[in-house]
Amino acid sequence: MVSYRNIFGVTSRCLTAFKRNIYSISYNPLSYRCPYKSNSHFQHPNSLRNFSTEQQKLLQIIQGEIQHETTNYEEPSNLKSFLSSSGWKLEETEGEVNMSLKKTVNGMNVSVEFQLVSPFEPDGEGETQAEMTEFSVSVEKEGSPGNGLIFFCTTIQNDEKFRYMICNVRQFANNEAKNSIHSYNGPEFEDLDDTLQSALDEWLGSLGIDSELCDFIDSCSIDKEQREYVVWLKGVEKFLS
């Protein structure tokens, strides 16, 4: 059984997919199957003219999309207010999918890592907002890096009681073990003794992992995807111009 707390929101449900360490996520372009089927042919009687026409057409569409996205973009209201009041420092780099929040609490260096996500479910056909964001919480003692714990978690939306769940807790004694895809992630959190679950949950909560942080993660991960999409559009525009 799992210990539940309304404030810090742990539930026994755990995605099978999240059993994969976030450091082991990889992309295999050979296994990717594009759903779009091109109507292009390899030979055209007026290939040069067609190329110029099609490139101009593509450029106009890209520019229209940039105009639409920049006009309708609005930064979520909770992002700046959370950072200004919580003490967390956001670190991100344009063009990269990873983000982190860092903070020192009671002699512990806490780092929350997460990635941008699509605002819609993969099978939602643009109609359903994604309901969770995977994130990890690394905790190390000040002055003793490479020795600590990593909590693998995911946010939960549309739940009246719980805001996030813990899936696993990894213990590491050096940086190699911390980052290795082969390291043991710890037992399933729901399989731990109730007392141990509750103690780990409350300790994590004392480090600032709460509902407001989850709200920020969900908003920021979608906002980041939106901003990177515009950067991508502008890059395509520059290439075609």
Tell me roughly what share of residues is in helical segments.
25-40%
Number of helices: 5
Shape: elongated
Distance between the termini: 60 Å
Record the strand order, biggest sheet. Answer: 1-2-3-4-5-6
Name of the level-1 CATH class of the domain at 77-230: Alpha Beta
The appropriate CATH architecture of the domain at 77-230 is Roll
CATH topology name of the domain at 77-230, in short, is Mitochondrial Matrix Protein, Chain A
CATH superfamily of the domain at 77-230: Mitochondrial glycoprotein
Strand content: 15-25%
Q: Got a strand count?
A: 6
Features:
Mitochondrial Matrix Protein, Chain A; 6-stranded antiparallel β-sheet; alpha+beta; disordered N terminus; 241 residues
Verbal overview:
Pfam families: MAM33 (PF02330). The protein has a six-stranded antiparallel beta sheet with strand order 1-2-3-4-5-6. It has helices at 47-72, 78-86, 175-179, 194-206, 211-240; strands at residues 89-92, 98-105, 108-115, 134-141, 144-155, 164-172. It has a domain at 77-230: Mitochondrial glycoprotein (Mitochondrial Matrix Protein, Chain A). The protein is of the alpha+beta class. The model is unreliable at 1-13 and 15-33 (pLDDT under 50). The chain has five helices and six strands.
